[in-house]
């Protein structure tokens, strides 16, 4: 009887191991939605979304971003073509008719056989929080008027809504993505952009005309709400074969960010506060190893985050660390090894990346236990770790990443090869609602969503399986 009991115990033990293995190997959801297979094509140069505004020396490619660390500043950028014209911005609040004046700078650059227009950047400072402002550019020739609303004052329970787009490009699908975002009933107030802007480098000699068309394409959104920039691989523009050996030349001339406000030494990594969020932007394509400027900056930056002031800690980068597609697979691995322990230590809420032209959301996992010799090299559930979201699905001409690794890994909660955008809607210090919207659906449809519970103020399990 004892032997029989022992045998049953052995069987049960083995059965339990098998069951555990089955659960362990079981991943999340791979969406059953299949997008119609269509070639992704760039819109032709004469498309209406690229149209040049009428009038002599009319400002074009107008866009804004945050201009300081706390949200009281705005960087206004625009291009004039006929002549430099004025670099002055006139601005006034909604309830005032008195126009204020800010003076900017003007730059140009050459890239192979291309010469840029006159690129203007003007920082407006000391604005009032939560106020609508109008602004004018093109003073002296063709004046164009736009507006923006400053964020509420930084504070722990300030609600705020961020839009999320990555790898946009300028294809017909890109236009659908931007339109879908603009018409989403949950209105994003600031757009977090995960890198890969114009895809001009996909053209012969990195045709910089495509930087101009892209600037005109996004103006309808980026002139009215800040786009927070992350540099991707398509911004590198390193082309020694045509004599272009300075990386990021078009990008850094056209898109300014307030990097000095967070003591960064380069515009590729920086931080901002906005409402109840602390946003850290990192560069997958700048040196990030130990002792590099980016490493030293991040090492000092993370301890500065006061979660009693800004509860939500959000990180943007281009190359994802957790990716179960066969495209760009493990490209973010060396950066993950360097920085993931810090993300867990400081309880980052969410990391948004692009690069892979599809959508994926992870569970809260970390792979920080592995030390080369211990063999503990499988991502494990970790409630101090961020959710990793890949949203490189803006719609660019390179098309969708449709080839996924099989079986779906346990850390992957939801994945789908479709174009779309997302919204991160902060409610207070404890809760935020996240939704992803594929282009094929009606504006209010959520193809994927989850409630985020803040890692500092409400660190209970918010995994998909826990909520279902």
Automatic annotation (TrEMBL):
Residues 1-21 form the signal peptide. Keywords: Glycoprotein, Hydrolase, Iron, Metal-binding, Signal, Zinc. It catalyses: a phosphate monoester + H2O = an alcohol + phosphate. Its EC number is 3.1.3.2. It is an enzyme of class 3 (hydrolase). GO terms for molecular function: acid phosphatase activity; metal ion binding. Residues 58-153 form the Fibronectin type-III domain. Its cofactor is Fe cation; Mn(2+); Cu(2+); Zn(2+). The keyword Iron applies. InterPro entries: Calcineurin-like_PHP, FN3_dom, Metallo-depent_PP-like, MPP_PAP, PAPs-like, PAPs_C, PAPs_N, Purple_acid_Pase-like_N. Belongs to the metallophosphoesterase superfamily. Purple acid phosphatase family. This is Purple acid phosphatase.
């Amino acid at each position: 009887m004892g032997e029989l009991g022992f045998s049953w115990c052995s069987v049960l033990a083995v059965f339990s191991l098998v069951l555990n293995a089955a659960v362990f190997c079981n991943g999340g959801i791979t969406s059953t939605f299949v997008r119609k297979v269509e070639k992704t094509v760039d819109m032709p140069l004469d498309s209406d979304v690229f149209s040049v505004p009428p009038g002599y020396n009319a400002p074009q490619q107008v866009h804004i971003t945050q201009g300081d660390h706390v949200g009281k500043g705005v960087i206004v950028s625009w291009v004039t073509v006929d002549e430099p014209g004025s670099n002055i911005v006139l601005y006034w609040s909604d309830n005032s008719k008195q126009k204020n004046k800010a003076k900017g700078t003007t730059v140009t650059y050459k890239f192979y056989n291309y010469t840029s227009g006159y690129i203007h950047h003007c920082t407006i400072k000391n604005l009032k929080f939560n106020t609508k402002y109008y602004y004018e550019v093109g003073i002296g020739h063709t004046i164009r008027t736009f507006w923006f609303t400053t964020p509420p004052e930084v504070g722990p329970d300030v609600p705020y809504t961020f839009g999320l787009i990555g790898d946009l490009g300028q294809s017909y699908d890109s236009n659908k993505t931007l339109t879908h975002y603009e018409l989403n009933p949950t209105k994003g107030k600031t757009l977090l952009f995960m890198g890969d802007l114009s895809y001009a480098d996909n053209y012969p000699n990195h045709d910089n005309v495509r930087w101009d068309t892209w600037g005109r394409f996004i103006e309808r959104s980026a002139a009215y709400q800040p786009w927070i920039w992350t540099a991707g691989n398509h911004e590198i523009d390193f082309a020694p074969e045509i004599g272009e050996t300075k990386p990021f030349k078009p990008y850094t001339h056209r898109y300014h960010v307030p990097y000095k406000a967070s003591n960064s030494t380069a515009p590729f990594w920086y931080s901002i506060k906005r409402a109840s969020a602390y946003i850290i932007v990192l560069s997958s394509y700048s040196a990030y190893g130990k002792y590099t400027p980016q490493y030293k900056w991040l090492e000092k930056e993370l301890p500065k985050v006061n979660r009693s002031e800004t509860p939500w800690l959000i990180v943007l980068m281009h190359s994802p660390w957790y990716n179960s597609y066969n495209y760009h697979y493990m490209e973010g691995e060396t950066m993950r090894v360097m920085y993931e322990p810090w993300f867990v230590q400081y309880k980052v809420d969410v990391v948004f990346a692009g690069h892979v032209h599809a959508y994926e959301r992870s569970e809260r996992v970390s792979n920080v236990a592995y030390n080369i010799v211990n063999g503990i090299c499988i991502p494990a559930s970790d409630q101090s770790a961020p959710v990793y979201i890949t949203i490189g699905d803006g719609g660019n001409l390179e098309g969708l990443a449709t080839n996924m690794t099989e079986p779906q890994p346990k850390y992957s909660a939801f994945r789908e090869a479709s174009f779309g955008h997302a919204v991160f809607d902060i409610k207070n210090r404890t809760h935020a609602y996240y939704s992803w919207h594929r282009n094929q659906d009606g504006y209010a449809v959520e193809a994927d969503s989850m409630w985020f519970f803040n890692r500092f103020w409400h660190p209970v399990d918010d995994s998909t399986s826990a909520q279902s």
